[in-house]
Amino acid sequence: MDALFALHNRVSVNLLTEPAPTQKQLDNIIRAGLRACDHKNLRPWKFLIIEGDDREKFGELMVNAKEIQNELTECTEEEKTKLRSKPMRAPTIIVVIADIKTHDKVPEIEQIISAGASAQMMMTAAFSQGLGAIWRSGSLMFENRMHEGLGLTPQQKIVGFIYVGHIKASKRVPELNPADFASKWSG
Ligand SMILES: Cc1cc2nc3c(=O)[nH]c(=O)nc-3n(C[C@H](O)[C@H](O)[C@H](O)COP(=O)(O)O)c2cc1C
Q1: Which of 121, 137, 141, 159 is the best mutation target for the ligand 1 pocket, counting ligand atoms within 8 Å of the beta carbon and taking the most?
Q2: 69 burial class (0-12, 13-18, 19+ CB within 10 angstroms)?
Q3: Distance between CA 11 and CA 172 in Å, rounded?
């Protein structure tokens, strides 16, 4: 697919289905993430891939993190079922992590932005291979229990969960006018 076509036409897809991306497709996605702009080439990125039955373990981790977030109040069965179903919405989940390095010229915010850029690159790489993807977040990604369960270090922060799979249903590209967003500044 032409790069500009992909950049202009990517949409998020929340209705995803099996099969999971092939290893080749997944490699292409990750390689795109590795081309994010990156001040001082710190490579402040880590990606965790969650697939198959491991999604159930991830659902349990969500329940656990939610209970800690709720000050150790047990989730109702309904809440547990809802949380456990979340990771099943796509065959593959990529956890995008900013792996913050200590650097005198590159503050944490720039490294988080770079990790966000890598997420966007991966979204476009998924689209350009005919796959669907959606970038999701939520308050649980800021919970210590979630970080612990994913094995993150204190220097690592989650910037999002990219759900990837085949497209069950897609949507139209919204029509936006560049002139509404960009204007010349002439002093
Ligand atoms: C940092 C970030 C977090 C997001 N979190 C969620 C989320 O938790 N759930 C959701 O439905 N969309 C979330 N979105 C928005 C979607 O990923 C998507 O961009 C939005 O629905 C617009 O659709 P489009 O990408 O097709 O324009 C998030 C986007 C960003 C950039």
Answers
A1: 137
A2: middle
A3: 8
Q: CB of 149 closer than 6 A to ligand 1?
A: no
- pLDDT tens for 40-49 read 999 999 999 9
Q: Where are the domains of the chain?
A: 15-51+89-169
Q: Which fold has domain 15-51+89-169?
A: NADH Oxidase (3.40.109)
In this prediction the pTM is: 0.96
- Residues forming beta bridges with residue 17, ordered by sequence position: 166
Calculate the CA dihedral of residues 11, 14, 20, 21 and round it to 10 degrees: 10
pLDDT band at 71 (very low <50, low <70, confident <90, very high): confident
